[in-house]
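Milestone M4 deliverable, item 7.
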Amino acid sequence: MKKFNKHFLKVTILIFSISMLLSSCSTEFTNPNATTDASILTNKQGLFALSVGVRQAYSTSGMRFIIETPATTAREISSTSDYLTINELEDGGEIPNINSDTEGLWVSLTRVMGMTESLYDGAENTELDPGTKSGIKAYANLFRAMSIGNLSINFEQVVLKTSLNNDAAFVPRQQGLIEAIRLLDEAKTMLATTPASSDFTNSVLGEDIDLTNTINLMLARFNLYAGNYDSAITNANLVSATSTSVFTYDALNENPIWVRGLANRATGANFFKPQDNFGLPTSIFTFDPNDGRLSFYLIPFDGTSPNGFQVESLKGFNLTQSSPMPIYIPDEAKLILAEANLRKSTPNIPASLAALNEVLTDTNDPFGVNADVAPYSGAMDASSILLEIYKNRRAELFLSGSCLEDSRRFGRPQPTPGSGHFSDERNRNFYPYAASERNNNPNTPADPSI
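Output delivered:
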């Protein structure tokens, strides 16, 4: 992460600490720094600091819950501890509203939404260079869209705007995906009309985030999830195969998956381990033993979890507390092309296979996620190819937060009602709403049954 002077860092920490106030979490908070808060949101340095605070909030607590929660539900990982939260998720069935993973997923992302709303409004109402204004607003839209989008793939209903009055309105998750797309389209238009200034780029993005390619990838992703296949194809084709955007970490802001899955590996006290075969049933999905993604993400481990799952040790992007984490894997764009070309109104099997085979034969991924295996040679009907795409999404995008959405979208078997059905590929479809929201917001919907 880019280094800042002491004053700038002090403002960043202040912004991050008051972000609780700027969220839709229904617990009420007082604000002893109201005057300072207002002044930060009306000057460039304060807005730059808030921009950094948004990224810190999303990349730490946000990414922990974005990854860990669905990964447990959809069997990417298995609990290796007696920690109640992750064991409740692994058991499935009726999950309490106070489960700290499902609550954390809701609260961390609505918190980021609140911060981005303030960031956007602050940039809109502050005298700034046009390129700085457009850069901040596009960046705010990106993180707000990613937050709404991730809520929409985990909850049946979501909020589109936060409320300090504890009365945020809920809408069906499809509307959440539509809003995420709208925000990203707006960001894309702003940057095309007025490119981000070097001041904003150097002070906020640094060398970590490629804003344009990230927006295009997220547009492709959420259009795919929303069923807008032609738009997904258009935007996926705009993503550079050599582009990278990463979240960076340090001793104060640790890689959240390292903290949970590797920090205590020497003592065996980590909270989870990745499941064998990327959590897919070996009776249906088999990988070439030479598939480079196996050795990239997993370290062989001859053991099982307490609930009997075959597990490995974690590798990939989480080896140290400061290991950077990609915001996206470039080959996700190719997998989106492969899937969307099959699902659109007139399927294009040759285009789908071409994109899929680029992933299978890849040897030069900028992050080193290279399958480096033979092209697809299975049955050439759409259903068989879709199954292969699902398998490769699981391997390529391992521990990225997409597994539960993918399991539902590809029509994998429905979970069995009740808890403890460990042979199910996933044990829930959507999560219950956070207790902090339900206890304070009268608009909170009924929890899904499963």
